[in-house]
Write a structure and sequence with these properties.
Elements lengths: L1 H16 L1 H26 L8 E7 L4 H11 L2 H4 L2 E5 L2 H9 L5 E5 L3 H7 L6 E4 L4 H34 L4 H20 L18 H25 L2 H12 L4 H31 L4 H24 L3 H18 L11 H6 L4 H15 L5 H25 L12
Parallel strand pairs: 1-2, 1-3
Antiparallel strand pairs: 3-4
Protein name: ABC-2 type transporter transmembrane domain-containing protein
Subcellular location: Cell membrane
GO cellular component, one term: plasma membrane
Length: about 400
Amino acid sequence: MRQTLLIAHLTVKCWLKQPFPLFAMMLFPILLLGITYLGLKPLLQDKQWVEPFAVAIVDEDKTFETKLLMKQYEESEELQNVLTFEKTDAAAASTRLAANEVAGIVIVPDGFTRGIRRGNNIPVTVIGNPERPFQAELLKQVMVSNANLISSAQSGANAAFHYLRKMGLSSEEFATYRETIITDFTLQALNRNKIYETETLSAFGGITMLEFYSLSGVLILLLIGGLFGMSLTARSEQTALRERLTLQGVRSGVFFFSNILSVFALLVIQSIILISLFYSVTKMWSLTATVILLAYCLAVSSIFALIQELFQRNGAKWGAGIILMMSMAATSGSVLPLSYLPEMWRNVSFLNVVHHAHSGLVESLFVGNQIWTPVIVLLSISVAIWALGLLLITIKKRLPWSGQLPLHV
């Protein structure tokens, strides 16, 4: 044990002599988180999946009903989150469209209100901006939806007219009711105050998407940190140190556990940074979560120490580490919930340390269950990896073609 701690100490001292790779490893998670946040910021903010854009509207009818309709559009909070209507004339609207200042033009033709009263379909002209295809298509869908709603309002008004005629009203009374019904039905139909539906999925176990992927980001970044830690322990300086100490009688198992301790220490420091970022977002953490994360760091460092013993060439170590890391992230249920994954992937997730750590942290932080099962499972996996690593070292010692230096017996 003393030799293991001493070699781990020497390993860290070698890292500090060339601190740039070490600092790059520490700062990489923050840089990656910053880039990811900038890319996903519109999705993480409520109803900001598209930037609001301007639409020019030309009212050629200029009736009380169309003015009331324009005011309704302008005051709609839901519409303002996606688009804004700017009233103007046809010439100014065309100029702004040519200058790419608006996503489209909506022209309400003369006689539009009269057509609604008489049951005639007088179409509204919608001109999209070809320079903004997505926004133009969204505007088109909004106006098509409104047209369908107006048709529904006309059907409702016709049904009301049918019953009013059966009541035997006079012409003056019928005309008064007709005006009121047309206005009420049309404005009521267009006053949905909804552009899109918001639905909360239960695939994230009752927590928000931000909370779910914040945890996933912490665990996956620590997994990436383990890969970088393995590369630090496989540098030429470390190889030379191992060769010299091997000639002095230090056993390979000591190097195996010293690599685990060295990478574990790096992951603990990295965890402090990531926990701080996670807490700033969710305002949640606990003692149980800390123990789970420490057990996870130990398991990750053990996995990459085993890969380092399994392969001789650095290229093979990197390739195996990247493949393993991607496989673990894909089958853990941290990138996509397990309910979305194929049945076969769900069956192998019980071997995945990321899965156990993620589910344990979710239970501890967001469900409130202070369970220790994930800690026991992660520690058991670490012990199994240690046994496998020692077995691998024993096999390599007895293989003359393994390229390993003679060991002191």
